[in-house]
Amino acid sequence: MPGPLSHIRVLDLSRIMAGPWSGQILADLGADVIKIERAGEGDDTRRWGPPFLKDKDGKPTKESGYYLSVNRGKRSVALDLKSEEGRAAVRALAAQSDIVLENFKAGTLERMGLGYEDLRQVNPRLIYCSITGFGLTGPMKDDAAYDFMIQAMGGLMSVTGAPDDAPGGGPQKVGVPIVDIMTGMYATIGVLAALANREKTGKGDHIDLAMLDVSVAMLANQAMNYLVSGTPPVRRGNRHPNIQPQNVYPVADGHIVLAVGNDGQFRKFAEVIGMPELADNPDFATNPGRVENLPALEAILFEALAKNGVDHWVAAFARAGVPSGPINTVDRVFEEPQVQHRKMLRDIPHPLSGDLKQVVSPLNFRNAPLSFDKAPPLLGEHTDDVLRALGLETTA
Fold it and tell me: What is the pTM of this model?
């Protein structure tokens, strides 16, 4: 059975991460995603390595791990957009597409005659999503951006990392390009909402999505804490600003994460560590009390938790319904029985390596199950097929 978006075609003019992440989500959902790449060069991320995929003989290819993480399920068409033939191919594809994703600098595609106003002339129902660092308006609209700098500018690094006076303290970025990823998620939400609206109005739309806006939106409770209190939030390491105990705790043979979310869970937690009286202590009985008296509480918890190891505590807390877990390295993530049961790692046929392991979509549909049978494409792998179907020369 085809995926829920099998009737949708996406023209993906984006590269790097944010736009391609959205394109990969849409491809996983069954859309026909045609990725336009620079002839002879391709997406910048093809060169963002090592590591590079190894072929069947164990030799490295030109397919970087970074590129492979974000382009599954697409068709690659290599074009020179500086040529009229290349631009004509994009216009022809836009006429037959539902969605355009692009992350060129503001004004670049307009100068090529491929902006929203240009392409809506050939397809009034087109949904055109422009992804930029700072948006299509404002004093920084012409500036380039990358995830790292936006994490800094948007405030995320001010609340990520250990306090300045702690060992290793100072601003830290998130370990994955989280703003790029979330921008791709917002892009997907936006184009799907526009598709739903098109069913009602018959009209397409132009979505202006900025990475900086996304980063600000992602401040979530941290932003609201500031707006309510007037006090800017600070880096607290792994400690939650509003709920306790939530932290990384040393145990006899490593560390565990505890995420006690309410007073009932704290009572169960106190029983598991053999100190039920903590739940009746007026300093710790309620969450506000635990937040206000956290240094005293953690001194008690560090001593209690040091008596046993990771496996003991994770199992004991699980039996009691107290959220906790080990801190897995990436290799151990894929050894987790639950991750294996959910089939988050799949093997997909690849023309160079034979099989390619891929972390797949977490979405599970009962009536329109997803399939993962198309590896990230080689550069220009589908150029001839796509252009021939449009009745165009295959040398564009």
Answer: 0.94
